[in-house]
Fold:
Amino acid sequence: DGRMRCRRLFAISTSAFPGWLVTMSPAWLLCAALLAAGPALASTFTAPMDGLQEVGPNGSTATGFATITVVGDLLSVDVTWSGLTAVPTAAHIHCCVDPGANIGVAISFPSFPAVTGGTYLEDFDLLDPSVYTASFVNNFGGGTVTGARDVLLAGLEAGRAYVNIHTSVFP
Structure:
């Protein structure tokens, strides 16, 4: 159909797989302009996960990969991981902070599998208030779901969001 799919890496970190490298493709400005043209275009953010990128880095030897795809108001999460030293106690998207710093949770991952390696797939309606933490809606979204959605999308685009998988060993 002639549409361009924009792909770029963004800051992702995990306690069990802490850390991600922030990278933008050379065509980022073109992609940003195309993405602003309408909701039919997909924006995909990908990142490898490991313990060295956590703030501060930890000794986890676990690895993983996260893909977040946004089409209109649908955010799809695909996280694959292996080698955790304990089962996950929580997993979520954090936003909005520059790389090298920590920030609160924007979206928690419900029913995240309690296994040391696996895959998590979930779709989130970005206009559903239950998707976000109340703190994110109030502190970043100006108290509205549309505000939270807009800030989250801007954070993803700017490389100011990351994914965490927490365990009892690396909380």
About this structure: The CA atoms of residues 82 and 117 lie 4 Å apart. DSSP finds three helices and eight strands in the chain. The longest strand covers residues 42-50.
